[in-house]
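Margin note from the TA: students keep mixing up input and output lines. Inputs are the sequences; the output is the structure of the whole complex. Example:
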Amino acid sequence: MLSAGRPWDAQVTSFFLANHHQLRRYLIAQGCAPCDSDDIVQDAFLIVRERWETVSGYAKPKAYLYKVALRLWQRQAAKQALRRYRGDPEPRLAGLPDPRDTAATVEVNDTLIRWFRQLPVQQRKVAALRLIGGLSEVETAKILDLSLGTVKSQLNAARKRLRQLKDQDDPAKGGT
Amino acid sequence: MDRIDALVHRMTIATDTGEDNAALDRFIQASHRLDTDPEERQRIHDLADLIDTQDAAYGQGLSALEHGDKAFAEPLLRSADAAGIEEAAALVAALQDLPSDAVPHSLRQRAADLTSQRLILNATNLGATAHMNTSTPQRPAQPSTLKAETTSGRRLLRLLRHRRGKNITLAEITALLLDVIDVRDPFTRAHGERVADLAALVAGELNMPRTRVEEIRFAAMFHDIGKLNIPTSILRKDEALTVEEFTCIKLHTARGPEIVQAVAEIFDAPIEKDAQRIINASLQGISHHHERYDGTGYPSGLAGQQISEHARVIAVADIFDAMTTSRSYRAPLTADQAVAEIHNLAGKHLDPRMVEAFLSVTDHDSWSEPGPSSSVPTNSGETAWQSHDDPSHPLRVAGHT
């Protein structure tokens, strides 16, 4: 339990333990570097802690947590993309991944992250919230400000691609 | 669960045992720093406020775009774009491509569609309908009650626990839809409720089965829900509409059933069978409430018995309510005057059988004539309203008077 501060810290602690790992995985699947993801996870939970009285009134405070984390990540990714463009245009000229693609710099030794890195951006956004974060389709639509129909279609496309990637990884099915 | 979903889930939760404790230790330290360091506390509050501001900017940006105010909309949408909202980015790009400050109808329509989509999704997340737990259609809670309930976290959670595992009822769907309409257009909500009450009386007068009366009540309550997708600048326009704008108004009869069907998809739990049946049966009534008995209405120009019974009942109730409420371009008729007008419309705009039933309803001792106080919702802040689909008044389309 947290040692000081808020009457609801016990609840926040339980909420943290139930969600921090998934949230970190979600951020890394989005393209966030692992060291940055720790800071964003922490800030997101601190914001939830500061807003707990309001947030706990929502049907699912988890949706608020993911929205906050996504916004913090978007903010950081935008700054990083700007720095990369200003500092070094060479990677683009060399045909390397677009630095605006936030998943391009993630380590590829993690199978799940490697799969998500190969999804188109919108499929990745939707599938990461739904499949890694475990949010509902409606919550996913609300967080991303997309229609429910778009979420469903992007999710189906992502599932199809993920199955292909799994089969490619599976030697019994002809993968490498 | 899909097998790939299950696999991704397993791969997500795989973790080493020491990770939780280390992460929690770091979080406890960060919390302590926040509690003791004013600068750190300010940083976290600023981030939280920024996220709130981005959400508000998107909503206000869409609203400004609906009104055709490019100068106001663009910076707000830019802020939402910076938050990673893809639609905001697309709208900013579209605004930049415009040759002038005039916002075309297609962009205003897009803003209205996105606003409607957000309203519906937000309503489900607020859980504003959780207090409705009976299947009997009833007068929904007043907005103030809904607001109080949505801000009472403990009560809401208790209700949600109570609801867990149960199917969604018609009353819950009704409350959610009314909540959405109320945010966008309180007049349409009040109008829908009055038309629903009157249509149910007419259907009852015709000795329709109880289930049919329920279908008609539901369809009448939401006959104008398609107006959620009409840009506010058109809905509230003082002058006569252009042909393009009137086409947009007419589309509310097509958008209405789409919205009602879409709402049925946004609940996590299944919908009760009876509720689903009533929703399905209501769609024809919503689609065709502007058809006229003589075939001069829209959207399909249907005539006589081609028009669904639901729509023919709603048409009578709708026109009576339109006549007896004020508009910015005319004063309301008295109930007696409206009844006489409706009598004259039998066989023309209206089905004579429905008119006869309506007249019987108004002859009953128990019939309470609508008073002036019911003509305009008290929380609307308006004294007279536009209604460019007013069935009691000639079209006000430029060049077609």
